[in-house]
Amino acid sequence: MSHPSDLREHIKALEALGDLDRIETEVDWNLEPAAHTLYSSEHRLPAPLFEKVTGVADGFRLLGAPAALSAAPGKPFARVALSIGLPPEATGPQIIDHLAATQHRPGIPPKTVSRGDAA
């Protein structure tokens, strides 16, 4: 599995690992997603992806706990590993070594696009 290049790919990678819970029921933006995300994190459940948020335009979603411990069996650090370009099987020491090795690299400049769905 390669490093996701954007949030959509990250979500697909989590789904492929069985570490994503799509919440189709509409939630109120004020505290409801936060409470659900906290519960998911505390019980090591898949990352919640809220598909419908009250008062938010259609098409906008909310991903909770993108860097919490993973629910994927045998891959407790999968979410963190994917977010920094490592395979989901990466161990804690491998993640720390990678972060230490890359801490002085220059950042990636932002890319301006005309639409949110641009590639």
Please give a structural write-up.
The longest helix has 11 residues, at 32-42. By secondary structure, the chain is an alpha/beta fold. A three-stranded mixed beta sheet has the order 1-3-5. It has a two-stranded parallel sheet with strand order 2-4. The protein has helices at 7-16, 32-42, 78-83, 92-102, and strands at residues 20-23, 27-28, 47-50, 53-54, 62-63. 32% of the residues lie in helices and 12% in strands.
Secondary-structure blueprint of this entry?
Blueprint: H1 7-16, E1 20-23, E2 27-28, H2 32-42, E3 47-50, E4 53-54, E5 62-63, H3 78-83, H4 92-102
Parallel strand pairs: 1-3, 2-4
Antiparallel strand pairs: 3-5
Briefly, what is this?
It is built from four helices and five strands, in the order αββαβββαα. The chain has 119 residues and is α/β, with parallel strands linked by helices. The chain has a three-stranded mixed β-sheet with strand order 1-3-5.
What sort of overall outline do the alpha carbons produce when their principal axes are compared? globular
Report the order of strands and helices.
HEEHEEEHH
> Which percent bin holds the helix content?
25-40%
Q: Major sheet: size, sense and barrel closure?
A: 3 strands, mixed
Q: What keyword list fits this structure?
A:
119 residues, three-stranded mixed β-sheet
